[in-house]
Specification:
By secondary structure, this protein is mainly α. The protein is built from 16 helices and two strands. The radius of gyration is 22 Å and the shape is globular.
């Protein structure tokens, strides 16, 4: 029997741990988004700037749908429907049989998500609400980017208790539901009742197919495309069709082999490694040339960044603390208050959904609208970066509980 203790980690092991974690954890999708955002900013500020702008914003020579006459519109209204379809699948699965399936499981994440959406909106409005034309951006800092936030937690490995990871995921899921509702209610243009009625009819047929036990995926996919086309022309943002279609996908099956889970497992990698990165590259490019402190510290970017950095952490942490104080819910098991604070900070990473809402809040090709979108991007990127770094530092420094014991994964 060999009693020799295994050698401890070397200095090189410690220094390279974050890099190695990228390839063995769930951090890869988040790191990819960081690289994509950096590439978009580089493209918008180098000799490639004109080509970058032309690629996404110039009118297409040919398009099968006249309403989508630029590549950016195809990405934002078309490709992102897949993103929202996957979100809808995830939400339905979690609500019916996952981490949101019981009232007790839903209570804390729902309260935390509501606090984490309301307070950033209030912070935004306190800073920018009085400025002409800026009130429409109130929802930009209200969303959390799941891939980014989970990616940062993935870098820390098992030092973050499983309950805290689960809390982050469930808050982000509820957050997605809230963001979808915000888009549907507050960022809807003039409704066209004929197209809206056609969309409702298609959705009803899909729901009836579910109840009738139709088990072939092709009819659902074809009708989902028709639903998307109808919603695109109805005045409601086209991506909402993705969520609605997902809610009609059956969950009947044997040994977890359901159509919903097959769709989710098939599309999730494409979503993480193609759809969202393409969206990020198309929308994160902001021209920084000529920008001075006056533009960087303008009310809009400051309001967005403050909403993400201050509003998110205050809204979520205060809600969790208050819920435990009054006995409505308890903080995640094996998680210290500093760790809850760290995760609350990570929820201020608002890349994908924040960029998306920013495009909806200030639409149009006018110079003023383009400037407002660019200012929103500066706030989103700056606030997300600060939240990511601060959250990582807090969690890395609080990897042990107050008694100095290593937290386990129970």
């Amino acid at each position: 029997m060999n009693d020799t203790a295994p050698p401890g980690p070397t200095l090189l092991d410690v220094l390279t741990a974050p890099v190695r974690a990228l390839f063995v954890s769930d951090a890869k999708a988040g790191i990819l988004l960081i690289l994509v955002a950096a590439a978009a900013i580089a493209a918008a500020n180098t000799v490639f700037a004109e080509a970058y702008h032309a690629l996404f914003h110039d009118t297409l020579a040919r398009t099968p749908i006249p309403k989508l006459d630029t590549l950016q519109l195809w990405v934002n209204d078309g490709l992102m429907a897949i993103f929202f379809f996957v979100v809808g699948l995830e939400v339905k699965r979690e609500v019916l049989e996952g981490q949101l399936s019981t009232a007790e499981q839903r209570r804390l994440p729902i309260m935390a998500a509501i606090g984490g959406m309301a307070v950033p909106a209030l912070v935004y409005m306190a800073i920018a609400g009085g400025e002409p034309g800026l009130a429409r951006g109130w929802a930009i800092p209200a969303a959390t980017d799941i891939a980014f936030a989970v990616g940062v937690v993935g870098l820390l490995g098992k030092r973050v208790p499983a309950s805290l990871r689960l809390f982050l995921l469930t808050v982000a899921i509820v957050d997605d539901i809230g963001a979808v509702l915000i888009i549907a209610v507050f960022y809807t243009a003039g409704l066209k009742l004929a197209w809206l009625g056609a969309a409702a009819a298609v959705l009803a047929v899909m729901a009836l197919m579910n109840r009738a036990g139709v088990s072939r995926p092709l009819p659902y996919l074809l009708l989902a495309l028709v639903l998307w086309y109808c919603v695109l022309h109805s005045g409601i943002h086209a991506t909402i069709a993705g969520v609605l279609a997902a809610l009609t996908i059956p969950m009947r099956g044997v040994d977890n082999d359901t159509m919903l889970e097959r769709f989710e497992h098939t599309l999730a990698p494409w979503n993480a490694y193609l759809v969202v990165p393409v969206f990020g590259f198309a929308n994160a490019g902001v021209a920084l040339t000529g920008l001075g402190m006056e533009q960087i510290l303008a009310p809009l970017p400051v309001a967005v960044a403050a909403g993400l950095v201050i509003g998110k952490q205050v809204g979520i942490f205060a809600t969790v603390y208050a819920a435990q104080l009054v006995g409505l819910a308890k903080r995640p098991i094996h998680a210290s208050w500093p760790q809850v604070w760290g995760v609350s900070l990570l929820c201020g990473i608002g890349f994908t959904m924040s960029l998306f809402i920013g495009e909806l809040a200030f639409p149009g090709a006018r110079e003023t609208a383009v400037l407002l979108r660019d200012e929103a991007k500066i706030g989103i990127l700056g606030g997300s970066l600060i939240s990511a770094v601060a959250g990582y530092l807090i969690l890395s420094l609080t990897a042990q509980n107050p008694r100095g014991e290593t937290l386990d994964e129970d």
